[in-house]
Amino acid sequence: MRFDTKPYEEKMQKSIAAYEENLESIRAGRANSAILAKVNFEYYGSPTPINSMADVRVADSRTLTVSPYDASTLKAIEKAILASDVGITPANDGKMLRLVFPQLTEERRKELTKRVQKEGEDAKVAIRNIRRDAMDASKKMKKDGELTEDEQKDAEKSIQDVTDKYIKNVDVISAKKEKELMEI
Question: For 87-102, how does the pLDDT look when each residue is reduced to its tens digit (9 = 90+)?
Fold first, then answer.
């Protein structure tokens, strides 16, 4: 019997996808509607994502516009953006909000790079936790007599190989985002 690493590899792939999604919200000096993806505002007593209640568009490379479908939500959306960690004060013209992205300072670039590194480390920890679960499962299968000593060693090697592949993937994604932040 062979140890199946597929389910663990799928979990690692999901960790990578979550990491990439988190990186989308790190603004790189360019207008990007993904920045507002995780910002919610109070709408009839429940937290509602801005994207579901407003048209969020990139007007130009430095400007994002937010046009609410219901004009009465404009103030609540503005308040939510101010309270979030977006770091941009929206300009309210009564019909829509404009978010103008300032040029990144060297200090802000370094700050964002540190955030990318922290997110990357969190993704690596998630992948290592999945590796630990897989190793525990292979040890349990050996203990239960489902795997021989050699099969368990092979399983551990293949688990480690898969882990190394995904850790390397995180490093590549991090390096790409850091390069993007420093070039702007």
Answer: 788 888 988 989 887 7
Residue 169: DSSP 8-state: H
Amino acid residing at 52: S
**Cβ proximity of 97 and 74 under 8 Å:** yes
Structural tokens at position 177: 């985002």
Give, rounded to a whole angstrom, the gap between the first and last alpha carbons of the chain: 53
Residue 72, sorted as left (phi over 0), alpha (psi -120 to 50) or beta, turns out to be alpha
SS3 52: helix
Both tokens assigned to 37 = 């993806």
Rounded to two decimals, the pTM is: 0.70
Which two three-digit tokens encode residue 31?
């207008």
CA dihedral 11, 17, 23, 25 (to 10 degrees): -110
